[in-house]
Fold these 2 entries.
Entry 1:
Amino acid sequence: MEHVKRYHSLSLMVNNKELLVEGPITGSYLASLRFDEGLKAFRIPEQQHEALIEIADLPEGRIIIAREGDLVLGYVTFLHPDPLERWSQAQLPDLLELGAIEISHKVRAGGVGKKLLEVAFLDDAMEDYVIITTEYYWHWDLKGTGLDVWQYRKVMEKVMGSAGLSWMATDDPEICSHPANCLMTKIGKRVPPETVVAFDAMRFQNRFLY
Ligand SMILES: CC(C)(COP(=O)(O)OP(=O)(O)OC[C@H]1O[C@@H](n2cnc3c(N)ncnc32)[C@H](O)[C@@H]1OP(=O)(O)O)[C@@H](O)C(=O)NCCC(=O)NCCS
């Protein structure tokens, strides 16, 4: 499968900062930008910057960023699922996982998360993919936001729902291990039925239990 990436951008104002939201971008372009110290939810910022540069250059990898000048203040990633996860079992070339979305605390709750997804889905190529995101409450910044798990789940539903991702059932043990965890999915208009069947088979692997 050829992974077509078409660049789009939009701007928005948050907390008196004029942000440009753009992507998919290349690794070398991302390497030329500074990475905000507030982007530390998943790794220390320097390591996360490096990880995103690598993802940007993967054939299927897509990185959308929000930046003020040359300072990156938010990002979202799309790439094939980790080989250790069940979502990679069928090796579907047209399945992408929204792996991480993070906004610096300097510009949170100002619409940047939703804008990142808006720009990501401006590329019509996204209609060729099943897009999934696995939401685990232990990845959420509960401490930093002061939200409880259900309030945070609501924020995630609003962010993901703004781009058309919706809740889907699965018997994945990690997702089922807490009721606030969930799988959210968007199936592109041009995704062939064989991919949907293979995806459904990955979602449910313990049918004998029911
Ligand atoms: C989750 C996260 C990406 C949201 O990004 P954001 O830019 O703050 O989200 P948005 O401003 O687009 O907000 C989306 C909706 O949630 C609401 N919201 C966002 N933060 C909120 C908060 N702390 N309290 C209440 N509502 C909140 C917004 O008001 C908006 O609601 P609306 O659609 O009714 O207008 C951001 O909080 C973050 O980076 N968290 C740390 C990393 C993380 O947990 N990532 C998710 C797992 S990969």
Entry 2:
Amino acid sequence: MTGLSKPLAQMADDVLRTADGREKTALARRYAAEWVAARDAGRITSPLQDRSAVIGQATPPDFPARPEKPELKNPRDVPRRRPGSRPGQIALLHAVAHIELNAVDLHWDIIARFTDTPMPLGFYDDWVKAADEEAKHFNLVSDCLEALDSHYGALAAHAGMWRAAEDTASDILGRLAVVPMVLEARGLDVTPGMIDIFKKAGLTDTVAALEVIYAEEVGHVAYGSKWFHFLCGRHELDPKDTFHALVRQYFHGALKPPFNEEKRAEAGLPPDFYWPLADETPDRQRGTPG
Ligand SMILES: [Fe+2]
Ligand SMILES: [Fe+2]
């Protein structure tokens, strides 16, 4: 007996197919707690003990279920507002909530989509923890929006967020390179500036929420780097060269300095991974950042 109500990949699939934001995050947190309890109780000690019962298999949707609102638009059509104004602060928080909900789905998707690649249990522990934290982040930011008399869904949101997942749906190394090691690392670069905006606005609850997010996102980038290096080792690939090739292949945005070198280093992302890509950005830029 694993102590799980269903295999982990099926839990992941359930979360991906839940549309409402608060319902999605509640289910994500419940399933994460179930996994952690089973692991802590020593009921799951090897992904191979009974692979079909522990990890199982799923056919995750091409696009995760999402609520009817927010309306998804091309980012060029989402009006920009000054961050010094209250509407600007709400718009910024709304964009963060959208990123967090997308991140919940991204972390469950890596669990559900790549079950044909045998991975150590630590891989699942890490992404379950990351998915649980994203669910918490979405709830925290939604609470902040509601405290400002708004809510997730009140404004339009970026339509291209799932692009990175689609592009890397059949390549786990590409997924690790683009999602945690490019997109989530970008979060480390921009979050301190956001924290400053809300400090200036005197919104202390929002500052506290963003500080939780900032601290925990370092871990997500680190999980990406850890499992990227693990898989490169398995296939005898050079991690740096492989990272460069995969980002060039799959990522359609720009790697924009300034980089948060301190936090990137803490997350196991050395400068020679990202700087060479930043230098060549003008030639590669084909679309909008994911
Ligand atoms: Fe997050
Ligand atoms: Fe994250």
